[in-house]
Structure formats: C-alpha cells, structure tokens
Amino acid sequence: MIRRLLCIIFSCLALAAPAADRPNILWITVEDMSATLGCWGDDYADTPHVDRLAEEGVRYTNTFATAPVCSPSRSCLITGLYAQTMGTHQMRSDFVIPESIKAWPSFLRAAGYYTTNNVKTDYNTGSEARLIEEAWDESSATAHWRHRPDKEQPFFAVFNDMTTHQSRSMTWSYAKFQGEVQSRLPAERIHGPAAAPVPPYYPDTPIVRQTIARHYDCVSVMDDNTGAILKQLKDDGLAEDTIVFYYADHGAGLPRHKRVLHDSGMHVPMIVRFPEKFRHLASADPGKTVEDLVSFVDFPPTILSLLGLEIPEYMQGLPFLGGAKSAEPRKIVYGARDRIDEVFDSSRSVRDRNFLYIRNYMPHFGWNQRSVYPDQSDIRHEFYGVKRSSMTAAQRAFAGPIRPREELYDVRLDPHQITNLAADVSHAETLENMRATLIDQAMELRDLGYLPESDQVNLTRDTAISYDLGKDRAKVPLKKLVDQVEANFAPAAKEEGALVKLLSSEQPFLVMQAARDLELRGNLSSKARQSVEATLKAWRGRKDTSLALFIRFSCESILGIKTEY
User: Fold this and answer.
1) Mean pLDDT over residues 266-281, rounded?
2) Is residue 70 annotated as part of the catalytic site, yes or no?
3) Which region among 20-24, 291-295, 470-474 has the lowest average model confidence (pLDDT)?
4) Which of 107, 258, 281, 364 is the most exposed place for a label (fewest CB within 10 A)?
C-alpha cells in the first residue's frame, strides 16, 4: 500500500513536470553475450566504448536473466512477470496472456513519453501483436528517438543489437561471418585464436579457439555500434537528459553458455549511466559497482519507479532504483530452462550471492542435447566428436548423455561451476536450504513449468490464457503437481522390471523417463525389449504431447532403429 501511494505521488509529480525535468531512458540491449568486456576484467576483449560507459556509469555485477534463452526472457522484460507465471516459458510459445497484463512501456506512453523499439520483439506469446501495439509509438528497423514529432517530448528508446547473436558467433558459415561482421574491423583489432581464453568445459581444439575468437570479434563490432548510438545521443544534445541502460539478454551464444542455467548462461553485464542532473537517482557514484542481485523481472518496475509512475500490482519484480526502491535488496534470483525449439527440457535454479543450485527434472538428457539450429555450427560437433574417455570431468558434465539430478556450486570459489557440491556432506545444510527455496519460489510464482505442456494446451483450449489457468487450483493443483514431480525426482528405480512397468503409465513424463533409463541401462532382456517394441508402436504416431518424440527416440535407440526427425 505504501509503495502504491508513493508511486501515485511520484506519478502526479512526473506528469506535472516539464519535459526537461523528466529523464529520457535509453536501453541498449545486446544479444547473446556474457561479460566479455574489458571493464569486467576480460583482457582478451576490445571494448573501449562500453568500458568508457562503465567509467561514467554504475556496473551491476550480479544481474541475471530469468531464462538462458531470448524469447522467455523477453516475455518477462515486456510484462514484468516471470514467463513461468504466464505460461509463456516454453520457447516458442503461442499462449496468450490477459489484456489486463499490459506491455509496460504503454504506461510511459500514457505519461507523455515517446517510445521506440529498434527492432526485435520476440515476446514468446500469442499476444505479441497486442503488446507491440500497446508498447511502441514505433517498432521497426529504423525506429529512433529522432522520429518523435515534438523534440521536447521525453522518450524511452530501445536498441537491440544482434551483432553478438549466436548466428554471428557460431552458426553462420565462417565466410558469411567474415563478410558481414569481421570485415568491419581493421586487421589489428581481429582476435587471434592462439590467445583465445578456452574455458575448462571446452576441448582445446583449433575450431574451438577459432569460434571463441570469432565471438570476441562480434563483441568488438557491437562495441562500435554502442559507441555510435551514444555519439548520436551526444550529437543531439541529449546525453545530459538521458539515463542509459546497457545489458545483454542472456549469456553468450556459445555451447554451455546460452541455454544453460549456470552463470555462463544467466549472468549478464549491466551498466546504468546517470547524467549529472539525475545523479541523485543513482545507487552509486560513477565508476563504482553495485553487487546487489538483480533479475530481469525487476527491470520494468525499476523504470516505472525511476519516472515516478505507478507500478501495477501484478508485477513480480523488485525496483532497485527510484522512489519505490525496495528497502531490502533481492536475496535470490530464480531461473528456468524449459523446451527450447524442439529440445524438451525442465530445469530450475536459484542463486544467491554465494551459491547456485540447479534441479534437473529431466536428468536422463544431458545439457548438450542435439538441436537442429545450433548443430549447424562447427563447434558443437567438436563435443560430439571427442571420445568420452578422453574428456575431462568438466567437459563430460556438459557434453555427457545425462545430468546430475541436483547441482550445487560455490560461485565464489568456482566461477565456472565445475565442482558439483550436491553430494558433499559439508554442504548438506546449504543444499537443503536451496532445495526449499526453489520449491517456495515455484509455489509463490505459480510456476506452470510443473504442468506438462500438452496438459497446458488441453486445459487452455477454450481461452488459451495460461496465466488465469495458473490461478485455478481446481484445474492446476500446483502443490500436487510439484509434489508429484518431486516424488519422481527421487533416484529412478534401476530394476529392469520397475522401469518396464512405467512404460505403460498414463503419464507421458514417466514413460519418457522409463524409456530413457532403459536406453541408458542397456543389455535388456528379451521381455523388456518386447515391452519397448510395444511402447514404440503405441507412441510412434502420437502427436498429443511433445514428449512423444523423446519416447520414440529412446525406444528406437534401444531397438537399434535409425532415429530420424
């Protein structure tokens, strides 16, 4: 109630204030990039413009995406709610959200701001067209604050830079990358593969080094682009009237970065620069750092707070700047990985300042599942080609066929998250606390990831609004679903007979789990193989659940049938 009252007061003041007294807001969003920046201590990086921005602004060193892939994260960024709450967590999702949940830039428009988006939307919902219409005065490849009809009008402008996207970093042919990205750099700025920093979870091969160097070339071009935008702001005489946010939409577009819940996929750089006239709104002096945890879900309420606008009650984030700033910094950030394109998955994470906990609900599949789009790159096949016996423990943890059910890392001592402490008795209390925190968060956020996607489709057939579905405890008894998933989370029965029995379960998840366990077990009896044949026959033609594909793949692998999409 106090926060709401403060926001109403600030909103009235903001609407009454002349344009010159209201800050413009500029968001520079770069794609698929971890903190590969000189100002973050990366000596291999060549980023003079962003480094200068960091000197003039505040670095937030504990900023995290809500998902390690773009669409679910952007679903959160445009609404101020977790994608899991809205049912938009599976990438690509077409579920709609209620009209009462607005694209938050619409509140800025109502307060007299000119809003532009250049150019990416990708909001992962069937409501995308409505959100775009609500949010932006202009959303296009040429959208710019310069197009506002009244040059005195305050603006909120977003520029999305795709130069560091996975396509440029690894999936385009090397020749295309050279022609469209690397050619924009002078020879002395091109990164040599010999000096490339190879993380411990990568095999050290020429292709790996070349791909890492390629990614850093993309970062250098991105830096030039950022410098150009900031120069335009200065040339227009607006730098002293504009608060600049710079951040990445998730981790780097490389293996074991994008798509994983480790820091390499979730931890992103963020810089906020405040001009002198608005420096009283900053949380630290220029050139300083803030170590408080920040999540993407916090971004929308923070901008509204900065501008003194009312924060909708439905938003789930904690404002970290402005009049409605939360008195207490966030204690944990919550992360989720679900289906990504055709790759089915279900993992959740909680991270505090000291530890990262990951729970893998599909441990029968490794982190590096085959996938059509990233498999177009050479670097992915470096992992497939290395013999498991010659891999290091760190490489096997990523590229192996299975995952541990729980992962716990001390991020202070283990920044790459290599040493899993889940079985370490000296960390038993921390493990138990993180387990409980994860479940508490899932319940509080009404995480629909515990509901099979096929059930979500069937239950929303009439309305397609999963957000409302999540509040209907009769249709979605979340506590029961979480308890059920937790029960299944217990170590799988390794007896062949118990696994065969699960093949006839009415729950697709359990069928998939049993089939995958039998595949990993190998050396099956003739009776078990007959059951697998019957399961394949029953599931081969089914299209009512995306798990059917994975059930079929495991059965075909067991029976020695060549698997094809």
Assistant:
1) 97
2) yes
3) 470-474
4) 281
Long-range contacts of 97-102, Cβ-Cβ distance < 8 Å, separation of 24 or more:
97/125, 97/127, 97/465, 97/466, 97/467, 98/465, 98/467, 98/468, 99/130, 100/314, 101/314, 101/467, 102/134, 102/312
Q: What is the overall mean pLDDT for the chain?
A: 91
Kindly tell me if the per-residue pLDDT of 2 is higher than 60: no
Where would I find the H helices in 361-417?
Answer: 378-385, 393-399
**Prior bond to 482 cis, omega within 30?**
no
**Whole-structure pTM value:** 0.91
pLDDT at 456 over 70: yes
Strands ordered across the beta sheet of 406-410: 333-337, 347-351, 355-360, 406-410
pLDDT digits (tens, 9 = 90+) for 383-417: 887 776 788 989 989 998 889 999 999 999 999 99
Q: Which amino acid is at 301?
A: P
Sorted by sequence, the CB contacts under 8 Å of residue 19 that are 6+ apart come out as 112, 152, 153, 154
Domain boundaries along the sequence of the chain: 23-298, 492-565
Task: Kindly state the average pLDDT of the residues 147-151.
Answer: 96
Nearest Cα residue to 132 out of 144, 147, 119: 119
Structure token pair of residue 359: 């729970």
- pLDDT band at residue 6, thresholds of 50, 70 and 90? very low
Q: Looking at the structure, give the CATH architecture of the domain made up of residues 23-298.
A: 3-Layer(aba) Sandwich (3.40)
**Rounded Cα distance, 522 and 180, in Å:** 47
Chain centroid to Cα 274, Å, comes to 26
Q: Which amino acid is at 66?
A: T
> Does position 545 have pLDDT exceeding 80, yes or no?
no
Catalytic residue among 7, 12, 39, 70: 70
Say yes or no to pLDDT of 362 above 90: no
